[in-house]
Design a protein that fits this description.
The structure is a homodimer.
Chain A: E1 5-11, H1 19-31, E2 36-42, H2 45-50, E3 54-56, H3 88-101, E4 103-110, H4 112-127, E5 133-138, H5 154-172, E6 179-185, H6 192-196, E7 209-211, H7 219-230, E8 235-241, H8 272-284, E9 287-292, H9 296-299, H10 306-324, E10 330-339, E11 342-350, H11 351-354, H12 375-381
Parallel strand pairs in A: 1-2, 1-4, 4-5, 5-10, 6-8, 6-9, 7-8
Antiparallel strand pairs in A: 2-3, 10-11
């Protein structure tokens, strides 16, 4: 029997509502692999590896793992550290730690930047003839990773955004007073999550207009769109991406660029929705309210999608199996098999192709006027937040605690000496 | 047998997550009263009465009422219309409608302003010798109605605010980077809901500092409080009420009062948290993020408190019983019998005493430094969001729909001719 190799798991980048469920899936899979010895986690991603801050994941209280589906943030700690090509010292440090701890399987959970780090390490280990399987575990609410049908984390954010938007819209419709609600939705360069807000319509109260960063934003067209709607209905709901850009390349949020300062001398920088609300107020003399869900969009575990939780668990499980099978330089990806019933398979895709690529919303999923999504997008997105039993429903009951507050997983993270 | 009188129910002011459950409770109670004939609702509160816009509540599809606990906003329509003492024309109009429809029981669901309207109508009907029982049904997320232990709607907003705050705080603690989170919480003049954010601590991730409008706000003390904490921990969480005031009487949000204008020429008016975030950034050179949950605080039915739903139903039921018993000029109120186990009774209190009074947080429930609540407040507040079966748990299952989105009640509101 070959000597066992140890496994290291780490989280990187912005959290999603389901990344901690992936930790659980990876741990369970690793425990059942005869080839895996110790199961470590790095504290604060690759930064923790560089600092030698590892801990024994398998030694943690196992009861805590059942709480992972309710636990937002990065339970292992995250980082924004990105390995630079020329940072030879970093690579050497990592290799030293890996050798010292006999780490032969490395799983890195993250988005585009993290997949780049993952890929660089894979190539470095190969050059150095250090045998280690490096596998990426996908995760991003932005849904902009290529070669995977979607990324874990996206669906839960869609469910959060569409639920909150529906509820707030119902509230705003309580009065006869005309009102415009402007919701600002997260998404670095891609409009997936903003587009996902369209699902709120299934509750009867969704956005009337959706503006995505995939299309150049025009203030004139925006004003005309809203004016046209005002002739039809008193309450207008608009979803705008935080990263909308004008034809001259400037972000909409940079429109406050006159660099005005508040009473403390600090530069005021409102978001896109706040700026556009001011624009509508000035031009339409209507009540306008800008709403930004902020970090709630990625932290609202209590609204996590059952399908998303299920897939976050299983994609990490699959990633461990890939690593143990001797594959390296791959990302575990999701491949949709069918939509009715919704079914996915897991597959390995090349990190070379994933790293730093960015998946935008296909042009055919945006309407001609550039202010809405098409039915094709809805068909793509809806099954991801489904609660149907046949859709890979996650079976950890999302039960309330006795005191009515959420109960989070807690890991001791006793660092290895 | 005496002639039956008809009953009219209406909603007023800002919605809460549970006001529609009160409609259900009132309807069920009214149906079982032999003295009640038709059961009407006004569309958009007293405004609807003035406009003669009434509809038959009992004729609505009964299946819709089971969805009330999931339905935010005002399902009957709300208004901000306040009866003025001298508006004799309004009173006469209302009396005419009441006579014409033989309305002998009027239940008005609202906060302070609405109780004032309710009280004025009660006295007017008495003067005019028009026999009609006028009863107020309490409702406000601000929890500032006097003579009731608490107001329906408050607890659900507390559960929403504390849950979201806990989840977002866990997220922010994922990184090693020091960060200050500033949450702005609703509350017109009282700090109840801001204080309620303290419950997030029971999840392990709550606010470090809480600033209430009951205490004069000092920028200097605020800065010192935060600096002291920075010496102890990297992540600092602060809850501020939207209605904080400085010693000179100005609202904190008025600190942007240099009347600067954005690029559209519109006056910029950030909230208290945004202003205070700018102040901390300038003075502490730390990462600071201001978060405002906005209307989510009162519309998040998916986070409604079970106790709150239960009480919203039963307080309305009690109000109907009061009306039918011949009492008028009262508000149905909650009286806490015991805290362990948590038990309430319902009682009638005088609208004369309730109308326009405002209940602030007692001084003894705020700590000496004026930056936190005491344990007494926690003991008061915690049972209200409890999920214990013995605490008057509401038995409508908060089940998810198949598509993962909320499903709202829909009333046809066919206006009476």
């Amino acid at each position: 029997m070959a000597t066992k190799g140890n496994l290291l798991y780490a989280q990187s980048g912005g959290p999603t509502a389901v990344i901690n469920t992936s930790v659980w899936g990876a741990l369970q899979a690793a425990r059942s692999c005869a080839a895996v010895g110790d199961i470590y986690a790095a504290y604060h991603g690759i930064q923790g590896v560089l600092d030698g801050e590892l801990f024994d994941l398998a030694a943690e209280d196992q009861l805590q793992f059942a709480k992972m589906p309710h636990t937002p943030g990065a339970v292992l700690g995250s980082c924004r550290y990105r390995l630079q090509q020329e940072a030879t010292e970093d690579y050497q440090k990592i290799l030293d730690i890996f050798r010292r701890r006999n780490i032969r399987y490395f799983l890195y959970n993250g988005g585009n930047d993290s997949m780049d780090t993952c890929n660089k390490l894979h190539h470095f280990f190969q050059e150095q003839n250090y045998e280690c399987a490096v596998i990426g575990v996908p995760k991003t609410i932005d849904n902009d990773l290529v070669l995977t049908d979607h990324s874990p984390g996206f669906a839960s954010s869609v469910r959060c955004v569409s639920t909150l938007m529906a509820e707030v819209t119902v509230d705003a419709c309580s009065y006869t007073t005309p009102q415009i609600l402007l919701f600002e939705i997260m998404g670095r360069n891609a409009g997936w999550l903003t587009a996902g807000s369209a699902l709120a319509r299934l509750s009867g109260f969704g956005p009337d207009l959706i503006y995505l960063p995939e299309r150049t934003f025009s203030l004139e067209n925006f004003l005309r769109d809203v004016e046209n709607l005002q002739a039809q209905k008193p309450h207008i709901v608009i979803a705008v991406s935080e990263s909308l850009r004008l034809a001259d390349g400037r972000y909409v949020k940079e429109l406050s660029g006159t660099k005005e300062h508040d009473v403390f001398g600090h530069e005021q920088m409102g978001g896109a929705a706040q700026l556009l609300a001011a624009y509508l107020k000035k031009n339409l003399h209507t009540k306008v309210r800008a709403i930004e869900f902020s970090l709630v969009q990625r932290a609202a575990c209590h609204l996590a999608s059952q399908v998303d939780l299920y897939e976050a668990y299983h994609v990490a499980e699959y990633a461990v199996k890939l690593a143990v099978s001797g594959v390296s330089g791959k990302m575990a990806a999701l491949q949709r098999q069918s939509n009715q019933p919704y079914q996915v398979d897991y597959k390995a895709v090349d990190l070379d192709a994933v790293a730093n690529a960015e998946k935008k919303l296909p042009s055919s999923w945006i309407n001609a006027a550039g202010n809405d999504v098409t039915d094709e997008f809805i068909s793509y997105c809806l099954p991801l937040i489904s609660n149907r039993e046949d859709a890979g429903r996650y079976d950890v009951p999302l039960e309330l605690t006795d005191n009515g507050l959420p109960c989070f997983a807690y890991l001791k993270k006793q660092l290895l000496l």
